[in-house]
Amino acid sequence: MILTVTLNTALDITYRVRSLRPHASHRVSEVLERPGGKGVNVARVLAALGHPVTVTGFAGGATGQVVRDRLTRTPGVLDALVPVAGATRRTVAVVDELTGDTTQLNEPGPVVAPDEWAAFQRTYEDLLAAATAVALCGSLPPGVPVGAYAGLVRSARAAGVPVLLDTGGEPLRRGVAARPDLVKPNTDELAELTGSHDPLRATQDARRRGARAVVASLGAQGLLAVTPEGRWRAAPPARVPGNPTGAGDSVVAGLLSAEAEGLPWPDRLARAVALSAATVQAPAAGEFDPAVYERLLGRITVTDGTAAA
Amino acid sequence: MILTVTLNTALDITYRVRSLRPHASHRVSEVLERPGGKGVNVARVLAALGHPVTVTGFAGGATGQVVRDRLTRTPGVLDALVPVAGATRRTVAVVDELTGDTTQLNEPGPVVAPDEWAAFQRTYEDLLAAATAVALCGSLPPGVPVGAYAGLVRSARAAGVPVLLDTGGEPLRRGVAARPDLVKPNTDELAELTGSHDPLRATQDARRRGARAVVASLGAQGLLAVTPEGRWRAAPPARVPGNPTGAGDSVVAGLLSAEAEGLPWPDRLARAVALSAATVQAPAAGEFDPAVYERLLGRITVTDGTAAA
């Protein structure tokens, strides 16, 4: 199975309102809830693609229980979350029906105690024994040391399990130095890591810092991959309108699933871009429409070599 | 014990954000949660005043379980909520730290099925046997018939239990016709019921429609009471700045507790106004500051007879 790690799990709540006006009272016409956090989103897409996946990280309180109950009901997903004393955070996305825009409210989430972090690390080591790949996704909750991902990358490498890291800031900087197989920064994360706003230069620099391969997400322009096997750029046929929430998580799921199926890099990238675009176009944030995915898959342009520059 | 009925219970969540801007992403700096719905708020104030209270109504889903767990931990409050298949609603109050203003998001709540409504009515009849007074509070959830409060008023009268009704619109119109002992409308509810915007005229009209006594809430101007024992107006010493959330529920708790202690009308009204003002001034919405309450209590002006006009 593929293992995904989400240290900052969430219950993602979506509210539809007619029009959001500060200081007014609003009737919510529709409430949607789903387990969230980047690794959880990756797991849902992997399971939908037919890849068995185990989810670990932290869950606590009544909201954590809702997250666990819902994960347990998701076919193909195994819940291996570790209990935490504090309550799992909620995120509330308020969708304005008039404009289609979203206003986001993110709870801070629980502080992880040292013994909880130690318990997680033991669980993670145990789960690595059965994992074919591991994805470390998202921000670190308060209480988890900033070098956490670096340690988790080293454990995966020691266990011989390919490891993908998808985070930003100092956790990414330290994680990259521990030599993960793949990192997937967006342009902002890449610029913060390397100091360069040139995607190719920054991607090459990220490799020099320790990542075996780098897939940079260029937003609507698709992906730029610099790997030991070569260099590619993959782009959707046209600019895709919609909600980008979860698009990056679909990229991770696309890369991991295609690698698990033994596909070469160009096919991995095409799948990742098609899944990402199908996620942007889905009516619910972070879902993807399988029909849109299938239709887009044959229309992704993958160019290789120096064309990537 | 005093019984409070809340058919539309809620989990009231308060988020503090630096400044709410539509279409932006916000970090919530503080999360507060408490059981809500008008009758639940009344029960919390009654318990704080030393009056044992039983809470009934509906609770369902994970949110309903949180409401029940918290009620069980509130000293003096007994949980007699009836299970419902749907999930209890949440309300989210987003407090803007820069302006102090609040933006409210209210979930619709569950639809109550006919067998759930029947189960509630049986529980209510059972609880009436031990009740010294009953308060019927708030709006009706979808699925509950619009004449619900009229039926609950008649059951209380048949059981010889004094009944207070605090609601609006058609449920109030029908409830008043079933001859409750007391109704506590605000000026908008009173105007909707009677067609008159003159508080004294409207209050007298509400009595003619069936209410034995009417205590009209005039907002910052205090209360106007028209009863078989006389007519009074009660007002705080000065305009009280703050958050009016829960002020009306504190009025209900003040009236019920003072009546249970055998106090005459002027004392009941003074307590209700002082509690209401202490609620408006409290930092957390719907709480009240006992020290502020004690200090205000001796400073409420109660005028009687024609002075009420």
UniProtKB/TrEMBL annotation, chains A, B:
GO terms for molecular function: ATP binding; phosphofructokinase activity. Residues 12-287 form the Carbohydrate kinase PfkB domain. PANTHER family: 1-PHOSPHOFRUCTOKINASE (PTHR46566:SF5), 1-PHOSPHOFRUCTOKINASE-RELATED (PTHR46566). The keyword Transferase applies. CDD domains: FruK_PfkB_like (cd01164). GO terms for biological process: carbohydrate catabolic process; small molecule metabolic process. One of its GO terms (cellular component) is cytosol. Belongs to the carbohydrate kinase PfkB family. Keywords: ATP-binding, Kinase, Nucleotide-binding, Transferase. The keyword Cell inner membrane does not apply. It comes from Streptomyces mangrovisoli. This is 1-phosphofructokinase.
